What we know:
Blueprint: H1 2-28, H2 33-51, H3 58-106
Helix pairs in contact: 1-3, 2-3
Amino acid sequence: MDLLAISTLICILDNIMPFLIRFISSYVLAQKRYDIELRKELSNLKENMAGLSMVDEFAKCAKLQRRYNHVENILKENINQRLNQKIKLQMLLIYSFRILNVRILLA
């Protein structure tokens, strides 16, 4: 009877834990305040560029465009780093939990 209860619990946990791990890792690695500020700066730069005439103020518009591209690249790098960390953490936790389940089942 104990073996049935343990194996049933292990199977249930094996199916539930990946969802819990994904939820927890997305909460832990949520957007940082710095990224939110970068998004606000991007929207401000876009508004400033929309208000300028490209023909009349080319130098100012080009400077804003370069700044916009730079901030956008920084934001993309931050997002990619966070995504890579999230994937690594999820894989590590899910597979270590599955290895632990197999060890418990075989013991």
